[in-house]
Amino acid sequence: MQPHPILVTGATGKVGSRLVPLLRGAGARVRAGSRSADPRFDWTDRDTWDAALAGTKRIFIVPHDGELLTRPFVGRAADLGVERVVLLSGRGVDVPGYMGEGHSVGGTHLDGEDAVRGSGLEWTIVRPGWFAQNFSEGFFRDAVLAGELRLPAGDGAASFVDAADIAAVAAAALTEDGHAGRTYELSGPRALTVAEAVAAISAATGRTVRYVPLPPGEYVAELVAQGWPPDLAAEFAEAVSPLRRNLDAHLSDGVRRALGRPPRDFAAFVADAVAAGAFDPL
Fold first, then answer.
1. Are 210 and 198 in contact (CB under 8 A)?
2. Sheet harboring 84-88: ordered strands across?
3. Which of 57, 58, 160, 172 is paired with 31 by a 20 to 30 Å CA distance?
4. Structural domain boundaries in the chain
5. Confidence (pTM)
6. In b/e form, how buried is each residue of 271-281, taking b as 16+ CB within 10 angstroms?
7. Cα separation of 196 and 157, whole Å?
8. Is the dihedral of CA 149, 150, 156, 161 positive or negative?
């Protein structure tokens, strides 16, 4: 194992919070990069970058959505002696129109991918689809707990991927040989509609959770009525549009390619989330 610490940005997020203990369990030294860490890491404060990168040879990057900061960060990492970078990107970022017109997150990922490929470092790109954990600790959770998930997702399906699998692939790419120059597209083993996903949660929890498909305009109007700025509401509706257009239903082989095993099923995610109390009443 490398004697140098591995920097994990986004260490408190869905993937980073799973990756840090995986790496430590494998005997790696880990520097958890976050605004509350010591040394502090803040994407928007470049004065924190050098201390976070100091002495590291391998880094995991969770980009700062909506801004083109990955490129200068990777450049600075290379200057400071980093040798290997694993980038968390997103499924469909290289598909024109996948995220909707002018969606800022897609631009962040595309520029970040281009930056790591041209950096001269060993690189691996991880492109997951929709996280299963969106239902248990992400932006669907409050609605699930309230019993009604309202989305402009139509009856499209997604092959929801478990964040535990994303973290496991990242850990392998950071600590093993044989992953350099690879792009891993990650999905779960089957596609489910949002209605099927909440039905699985209902069956496992005994809670009634209903999915209500909305037209995009009505969804945006509801968000605005809740206090969202109109531009952010419209962008979020666009972020859901791959589901409505059934663009995320296909299965990818990245988990098997990276780890030599199949991806975790949505049912396993639900069972773990229930056991952890993620769906307990507020």
1. yes
2. 30-33, 6-9, 58-61, 84-88, 122-128, 182-186
3. 160
4. 6-275
5. 0.95
6. ebbbeeebbee
7. 9
8. negative
The CATH superfamily of 6-275 is NAD(P)-binding Rossmann-like Domain (3.40.50.720)
The angle at the Cα of 35, spanning 6 to 90, to the nearest 5 degrees, equals: 65
CA separation for the pair 52, 38 (Å, rounded): 8
C-beta separation of 57 from 4 below 8 A? yes
Return the structure tokens found at 115: 């930056």
Position of tokens 């989330």? 273
What's the CA gap between 278 and 282, in Å, rounded? 10
Tell me how far apart the alpha carbons of residues 84 and 78 are, in angstroms, rounded to a whole number. Answer: 9
